[in-house]
Specification:
By secondary structure, this protein is mainly alpha-helical. A three-stranded antiparallel beta sheet has the order 4-3-7, with no helix packed on it. The protein has a two-stranded antiparallel ribbon with strand order 1-2. It is built from eleven helices and seven strands. The radius of gyration is 26 Å and the shape is globular.
Amino acid sequence: MGIRRSGTIFAQIFREHMNRRSLQSLLVAVFTLFLGVISMPATANEEPAGEKLDPAKVIMEHIQDSHEFHFFTTKKSDGTEFHATLPLPVIVYSKKRGLSVFSSSNFHHGHEADNGYVLEHDKIHSLDPNEVVVDLSLTKNVVQMLIALTLLVVIMIGVANQYKKGQGVSSAPKGWQNAIEPVITFVRDEVAKPNLAGKYMKYLPYLLTVFFFILINNLFGLIPGSANVTGNIAFTVVLGVISFFVILFSTNKHFWGHIFWYPGVPTIVRLFIMLPVELLGVFTKPFALIVRLFANMVAGHIIILSFITLIFIFGSMSAVAGWGFSPLSVLFAVFIYLIEILVAFIQAFIFTNLTAVFIGQAFEGGHDDHH
């Protein structure tokens, strides 16, 4: 009876704790969407008077790269607008003027030129149409990726130092160890071992690096005003190309033998059907990694911004319609936002798991290889 009663009390405490955590998560999500709603008029207010809001333009400007971090826009008492932004350094090179370094605030949100350069649609061009400009600027995608990478390295080194001191080895793990250790164990047991068999320890550092790097950038992208780094095709292309070379360097003669001379198939079928298909498959694997991560992370942001933009679309029709639709739009946006937190973990797992699958297929051969 005592054990049953203790279990009941524990269950009640657990439910109360989970309800409190759920409420906190919901409040955080609502606050995040509230900041998002505040920041949305930043682009809408910049439209000329009488011109209708272009939802596609607003959404694309929020998910694309930029030379500044834009948080919100407010109108001053004199009718002018105040843009709360964090300008980033502009680094451009041309043969005519050499290397130029200055702040992106000099462009005044694209309304003015500086040093012979102008900012148009977040792209830097020279006032001289014949001058070729190489843009080496630290955009918000680059800066945020470096911040996320620095934070990841600091956390991992801190956790490693704790293990070196014996914390988590001879005693229970503490702090970040409690969060990191189960994830590492999961990637090892559910991703590396099933797909890579006896060679899993060779590839585990790479798989863990890919997983945590994607995850932390996914989570950073959900912060209002931040950059959608994993929703940038250049970011996913680099990850896909790296995985492509890891897969290629893991291949053996058995792998290439099945591509160029598929056993047990007539020669005509081998040369004109199997060979093109198998060769194409070598390149479609990393392509699938690239597109899957990019499309999923962009889609989530577009859906959230679409729900928020509906408020302004209805508001342009009628103030009553705008205010009336606002609660429903925010609720849907909060729901999608909570799903996006889950998607951040899922997409990191899928990219890592598929990479492990493709690597395993690359060196998989006869029965001796499995041993």
